[in-house]
Design a protein that fits this description.
With 147 residues, this protein is mainly beta. β7 and β8 form a beta hairpin. Bound molecules: zinc ion. Zinc ion (ZN) binds next to loops.
Length: 147
Amino acid sequence: MADALLSPVTDDDGAPFWEYAARGELRVQACAAPACGELRFPPRPCCPHCGSFDAEWRRTSGRGRIWSYVVPHPPLLPAYAAHAPYNAIVVELADAPRIRLVGNLVTRADAPLDSVDPHRIRIGAKVQVVFAEVEGVVLPRWTLERP
Ligand SMILES: [Zn+2]
């Protein structure tokens, strides 16, 4: 649909991420090799550190910091133009600083995409994950720890 927000495209490796998100849990893949245990994202079959194919999904605190952000302006896809200017932030996870997730900063889980004034966004600000169902998919979104 031309007027719909884009939904995540899942594959076998990434499906658990979305299943945990639907339960309100932010989990990332972790190497299950005893001598390794490295966290990784995006999901993939093999550990880039040790080559092991053993993996598990580890729950994170859901806390992080804004590592970068953009404020998209039109021209945009119609569904996004309706919300502009909104934000897309890159969050560095507190539990795994090498992992960065892209999402939206909002005032509360079910708030609109443009609920945060772009001028209030700061690199390094602490954020907390929240979850909201958007067009049938539960998405991780982010709120400021200190609004
Ligand atoms: Zn490993």
